[in-house]
Design a protein that fits this description.
Elements (H helix, E strand, L loop, with lengths): L5 H10 L5 E5 L6 H15 L7 E5 L11 H11 L7 E6 L7 E2 L9 E2 L1 H8 L5 E7 L7 H7 L3 E5 L5 H8 L3 H11 L11 H24 L4 H13 L7 H12 L5 H13 L3 E8 L4 E11 L2 H7 L7 H15 L3 E12 L5 E14 L2 E8 L5 H8 L10 E6 L6 E2 L5 E4 H6 L7
Parallel strand pairs: 1-6, 1-7, 2-3, 3-6, 8-10, 12-13, 13-15
Antiparallel strand pairs: 4-5, 8-9, 10-11, 11-12, 14-15
Length: about 425
């Protein structure tokens, strides 16, 4: 089965030979290695590059364990660049496996050597074009990015979008949508047939890879609280919250005291591991960000569902999460919108009302206001859904995405109504 990742392949092709270290990041098992070692390698071969000029090394394989030593890695790569008049392409998979070691050349020194030193050295070789993958934020911390001194070029990839999933799924569109809403877009899901296989795979990713990685890297003192927090966030995906609210939940439901600072730290761990995304709130009229509360979404809805044993299949929250991920995949900066206005209550007293726009999507000079709704068949429901959109006070494009399979149409306010599958499958549909 060939799974097309055209969006990311095109990015790699565009960055070919740009003199920077191409760093492919994303959650584990989302297809980073496949993108580099299959799709991009095939592109190079089809473009006339001979295989002997492509140097490949998977650092998560036992047979390559010695190259987790940065000095051994550097020596090996340099030894493979035999012809100085030929262009070489260096593929290093799971670069974060390379350990920091004490500098063996300076006795008593506290300095260390790591993969950053290796890559900064290799990038100076004029006929070497370097590509690396990494599965966590260890290699993307602010300190390491500073150490790269502007020589790193990140390509962050996600699990399959619905359009990528549907292209490989090859079945009825409605069935594909149901499968995607349930099991998400981790590529291996396409190879699993039974529910038990899909469920087991997704749960194992959490228990044996993601959480284990976080616990080992951060030396978490209380793994049970970390586990419970993930369950709470999974259950309330797309809901407004903050560390203080979550701390209250622990106190009232779990009868456990976990400080807001600890919770914030744990949430940052999930974000760093590409499990969660954080969506800030933006005051549309005030043109400013609101610090708290905010929303958290999962990078893959199937992982979220598996975390809850597929018990909470609320289509409204699932659809909202999928739309959020799609907008990010299209390179939009995505916030949760807030629209405030004054009105009178039943006692004729003035009050300030806050309405929510599900997503404010920005890319350069483009801006879209997007509302996710299961249906707008009922007129009262429709008016409620668009209330925030009609009060933004500007002329940027406004869209209501519905779960119903409908023919796109515009109302008298110029608001576009479109079915979710068309929205996800056709990037140009946003501009109908």
């Amino acid at each position: 089965m060939i799974i097309e990742r055209k969006r990311y392949l095109d990015k790699l092709i565009a960055k070919k030979g740009n003199g920077l270290i191409k760093i492919i990041t994303g959650i584990r098992r989302c297809g980073k290695s496949y993108l580099l070692f299959e799709l991009y390698k095939n592109f190079l071969l089809e473009s006339g590059v001979e295989s002997k000029y492509i140097i490949e090394l998977a650092l998560d394989e036992l047979r390559n364990a010695k190259y987790r030593n940065p000095i051994e890695l550097d020596n090996y790569i340099r030894s493979q660049i035999a012809e100085h008049d030929k262009q070489y392409y260096i593929f290093l998979d799971e670069i974060q496996k390379v350990e920091n070691i004490p500098n063996p050349y300076i006795a008593g020194s506290a300095s260390t050597i790591g993969f950053v030193d290796v890559l900064l050295g290799l990038i100076k070789i004029k006929n070497a074009d370097i590509y690396v993958t990494g599965s966590n934020s260890k290699m993307l911390s602010s300190d390491i990015l500073t150490e790269f001194r502007g020589r790193g070029d990140e390509i962050r990839i996600s699990p399959l979008t619905y359009s990528e999933f549907y292209a490989a799924y090859g079945d009825d569109k409605r069935r594909a949508w149901q499968e995607y809403c349930t099991y998400g877009g981790m590529p291996y899901i396409l190879y699993c047939k039974a529910h038990e296989d899909k469920s087991s795979y997704l749960k194992d990713l959490f228990d044996k890879i993601y959480l284990t990685d976080i616990l080992e890297r951060h030396k978490v003192a209380d793994p049970d609280n970390l586990d419970d927090l993930l369950n709470i966030v999974s259950s309330a995906v797309g809901s407004l919250t903050n560390p203080s609210k979550l701390s209250d939940t622990f106190r009232s439901v779990k009868k456990t005291n976990v400080s807001p600072n600890t919770i914030k730290q744990y949430l940052d761990y999930f974000i760093d591991a590409f499990i969660l995304y954080k969506a800030n709130r933006y005051d549309v009229k005030g043109k400013k960000y609101i610090d708290t509360p905010l929303k958290y979404y999962f990078s893959d809805i199937g992982l979220r569902n598996a975390r809850l044993n597929f018990r909470q299949q609320e289509e409204t929250h699932i659809m909202e999460n999928i739309i959020y991920n799609e907008l990010r995949a299209r390179n939009f900066d995505v916030d949760v919108g807030v629209v405030e206005y004054n009105c009178k209550d039943e006692n004729k007293k003035s009050k300030r009302v806050q309405l929510e726009v599900d997503f404010v999507a920005n890319k350069g000079s483009q801006r879209y206001y997007i509302q996710s709704a299961l249906t707008v068949a009922d007129e009262d429901k429709r008016k409620k859904e668009i209330n925030s959109l009609t009060r933004t006070g500007d002329s940027f494009k406004k869209i209501v995405v519905v779960c119903d399979d409908i023919i796109p149409w515009h109302d008298d306010n110029g608001i576009l109504y479109i079915g979710v599958e068309q929205f996800l499958l056709e990037e140009t549909a946003m501009d109908l």
